[in-house]
Amino acid sequence: MGANVTEQLSEGLHAALRAAGLAPPEELLWEVPRESVHGDYATNVAMQLAKAARRPPRQVAELIVKHWPSLPAVERVEVAGPGFVNVFLAGAWCADALRQILAAGAEYGQSPRGRGQRVRIEFVSANPTGPLVIVNARAAAIGDALARILRSQGYTVFAEYYVNDAGNQATMLARSMEARVRQLLGEARDVPEGGYPGEYLVDVAKGYLAEEGAHSLSEPEAARLERLGRYAVRRIREAQERVLREYGVEFDRWVSENVEIRKPGLPEEAIELLRARDLVYEAEGALWFRASRFGDDEDRVLVKSDGELTYFAADIAYHLFKFGDADRLIDLIGPDHHGYVARIKAAMIALGKPADAVQVLIVQLVTLLRGGEPVRMSKRRGEFVLMEELIEEVGRDAARFTFLTRRHDSPLDFDIEVVTRQSADNPVYYVQYCHARISSIFQHLKQRKLPVPDWRSVDLSRLTLPEELALIKRLLQFPDLVAGAARTLEPHRVAYYLQELAAGFHPYYNRHRVVSEDRALTDARLALAAAVGQVVRNGLALLGVSAPEKM
RNA sequence: GCCCCCGUAGCUCAGGCGGACAGAGCAGCGGUUUCCUAAACCGCGUGCCGGGUGUUCGAGUCACCCCGGGGGCACCA
């Protein structure tokens, strides 16, 4: 008993197919035609079934239309073009469906279809060697929105941040720390080649001296570096966590590669699992995994000839770790790691996971511009535009929304000056303003001491303007839209939908008064405004963007 | 040389598991406010959808090739 239109249409279509003696395809797809003269929904089943039915598509479509059952939601059904079945919704039914949207409230758009499935989504996972930068903000916006969207579809979602605090880079961080600490003590020391020369480490080094004291530097090298490294990782991680929280992103857990994967010997265990399946071999002094049997280009090294584990070996262990309480994994990674996708998938398939249980999304780079000029960023010299500077300058909502109006796999030019200078015309404000306007209508009502009607008893048949029906039909598409965003892992669909919805409301608001002398009409229009406001709020919530009452 | 991503309006990008006449925002020009927020509304668009071949009743969408841009091709992480 939902307002989900396509579910009802599919039931009707099934009934029609049965009555017509046609075998239904496994899945029925409804699309919203670009042109309204083609109806509110259309399906191409007739064309799909034509071959099996040994009839021309249009004839099949005629059969479907002929046997179409009477449904309150549907005014008429017709055959069009090469064999489309076009469905026109009944206006009165649509208007009445507003009641269901309002009753569902914040739950409108949710679905139970993912219930029982546990999804672990890992994102950002920047190295704990420096502050977060702009591309991390992009990944954070996308990952967080995906988590929210999947949750809305009933999935149990865990958001996870992996801290690569082991291996070479951890050592280089420790050495860089040591140089900075000794510099503070007056020694002439350079940050080592391949280290982290960013200024931020100076502050961390100051903290270290204050908390741990200079005497700790007299420890033997191994212990000294471990202490320095551990301290730096902790402080940098805390800073990353703080920025992400400001951005509105919370992780369910932060997993330390060093503590939770390496120390307990999980990589070795993973290798043994592969060995038990006879999927490893020794060659040239190293231990290899037969990745090429599972879709990778070539076999991959697990243990180097010097006896050290590769990052890949740890990564296999980490993915198994994630599968510990999840059925499905989603990794968001940067394009520089895409060479890893094939091998990690190969390893998971080799260990018995379904081929589609690991989904890897590549979040493409962000080219930062300022007034059309590229902002120079040099990791080597430690020059970045930081994520916190971005939030400061552009604002959290605008930054998130801008990232979410692009596909994750499309490289993005982000011109700070444009996004800030045009802030008033930014699409995010267009959508938020829609929400604020609707809030102000109810504020106005309150000031005039007029009651908010009980939606259950409002006469919605007063909503007959074409703009009103178009708006309502747009609202009715929302559940399918969110489901589609969840299925394809494309949060930007929600952002575009919201812009279209707002683009439907603003002109309507401009042309027609909601609150008028006609009390019954006022109540009906209030219901529509409330429903639009609710859906805007729900949609923005899925993106992690605020829905202000005032602007 | 091999692999991945991208190539749609001046700019930034959408185009919903192939569908019916290709869209939005921005930038530009002109107009709208005694009225629930003008961060709004109204009007103004001639795009070889990078090029080619193919699959299909139908291709911006799928396959292959080519061109252009970015990124990867480690016993680094």
Overall description:
Among the domains are: 5-89, Arginyl tRNA synthetase N-terminal domain (Gyrase A, domain 2, 2-Layer Sandwich); 426-543, Isoleucyl-tRNA Synthetase, Domain 1. The chain has helices at 5-20, 45-53, 57-67, 91-104, 134-152, 168-184, 200-212, 221-246, 257-262, 266-276, 311-323, 341-350, 387-394, 396-403, 416-421, 427-447, 466-488, 492-511, 519-543; strands at 41-43, 74-80, 84-89, 118-122, 156-163, 253-256, 280-283, 286-289, 300-303, 328-333, 358-362, 366-370, 373-374, 412-415. The longest helix is centred in the middle third of the chain and has 26 residues, at 221-246. It is built from 19 helices and 14 strands. By secondary structure, the protein is α/β, with parallel strands linked by helices. It starts with a helix and ends in an 8-residue tail after the last helix. The structure holds one RNA strand of 77 nucleotides.
Give a quick precis of the structure.
By secondary structure, the chain is an alpha/beta fold. The chain is built from 19 helices and 14 strands.
List the helices and strands and how they pair.
Blueprint: H1 5-20, E1 41-43, H2 45-53, H3 57-67, E2 74-80, E3 84-89, H4 91-104, E4 118-122, H5 134-152, E5 156-163, H6 168-184, H7 200-212, H8 221-246, E6 253-256, H9 257-262, H10 266-276, E7 280-283, E8 286-289, E9 300-303, H11 311-323, E10 328-333, H12 341-350, E11 358-362, E12 366-370, E13 373-374, H13 387-394, H14 396-403, E14 412-415, H15 416-421, H16 427-447, H17 466-488, H18 492-511, H19 519-543
Parallel strand pairs: 4-5, 4-10, 5-6, 10-11, 12-14
Antiparallel strand pairs: 1-3, 2-3, 7-8, 8-9, 12-13
The protein binds one RNA strand of 77 nucleotides through helix 6, strand 8, strand 9, strand 14 and helix 16.
